[in-house]
Records
---
Amino acid sequence: MRGTTKAIEHAPHRTQAGRTQAGRKQPAGEAKRSATSDHYTYRVSWSHEDQEFVASCAEFPSLSCLAGSQIEAIEGLRALVVDVVADMGSSGEIPPEALAERRFSGEFVTRVPGELHRLLAIEAAEAGVSLNRLVSCKLAIPLRAPAPARRTVRARPRTAKP
């Protein structure tokens, strides 16, 4: 993740009343931008290449923040997103809508090769379900296999031999 942007400084912590910890009132627009920024989809993961945590935002795929801890990474990125949203607002741009606030119809069209369509229709008929139900079930399976469950082995107490 070379070229990843590090956040310049952390924004002061905001309370629900729209005030900073120091007690100063935020401008109304800033409070709204901050609230909207809080609704975005953030993720923090470890970057083996950079040997730091990297925070990313689904709504702003070009932004990220590297830091030594997960908390620092997410706080740095959130501050960066607030700044970007403010810049967009001042230049008349509309920031992206948070995925969490979008309404999804539950319908989307996808194209598949005709042979795959046939195989799926056969599989659905053999299972006694609709093609839609079969495809929905297949889509619900995670793309990545979950990590195997760890077994915990407890040491047994040693008993003294007579």
---
Amino acid sequence: MDAANELDIAWKIKEQYNSSAAADRYAEYFKGSLRHRRKDQREKRCIARGLSQVPRGSLVLDLPCGTGRMYPLLKDLDLHVVEADSSPYMVDHARRKAEELGLSGGQKQDRFLVSDIFHTGFENRQFDAVICNRLFHHFPDSQTRQQALRELARICSGPIVVSFFSIAATDALKFLYKKYILNKTIQDRIPIGPRQFSKDIQACGLRIERWILPRPLLSMQWYVVLRHR
């Protein structure tokens, strides 16, 4: 992926959430309707399953952390956590939420940092595990996805839990309808084939340990647990 395209995608994602109001809206999204609350619980169960083999006390990166939605789960798993996001407003919200819940006090290894997935600034194999939830559906092409996967592989020694939107689900029918029937140009939140994502993963020196599907055949949000080959 060329540097201009990488910067363009990073800028668009950051700007989408680069305000206090956007962070406030995002924090409330999964607290709203029953459907959203159930989605929140499904995602947390998937991530917990993906981290099931990670020992207690391990150092885990949550990137992008958003407003810290997964932080309480990670603390329940007795993990040391780095919450990171490209939006400083998201990071600030996550930090304040952790303080309000009384979860971050005394945890010297827990940090809240501004960082983007293409150039995280972390050391090689710094983390025992990484979760990357709700980001890859913003990456429309293989080069972008591979750039992000290579950076995650560089900084992690253990499992990498990634979510993406799969075309192999009934939820994807809405996307197909807009694209092929209404002839709309869609540049974001694009579902892809699991086979294509597998190729991206393999091209980055990673292997698939297992797939985790919140709602098989229904939901296009899938999870995959990756390891170094």
---
Amino acid sequence: MSSRKKTRGFAALRPESEPEWLDVPEVEMFRGLQKADTKTIQLCRQVEEAISCALVCSTSSILRDLYVQGVEALRGVALLRVLVTMEGNAHRYQESIEALARAKGYFRSEVARAITRKRVPSLDFILVPSDLGSTEVQDE
């Protein structure tokens, strides 16, 4: 056996006086951040699809009147905020909130089935009025 010590990685190829970041382009320095954002966006889309399918296939007529407007990541991806909109009946607002709270475990299990992750994120549902989404001005 040789008495030379084996070195691993790229640190052995660089002289000690030269900093590591000297010849790395700026785009490559932030590549990890872009990849994390891409994965977060991908997860939000998967969760949006899973919850949309779960709402359509629900046995509750209240939940079938709801649809997903968007999904936002909070606290990394440990908590996802699901923005849900009602199709019409504004007088059923409180019933819709209660139905979403009762079905939170069902939605989380559907999300777990749809994504491939070690931990399933917690879901926070917010019921958004459909009037805020459309601001149309009518001409008379």
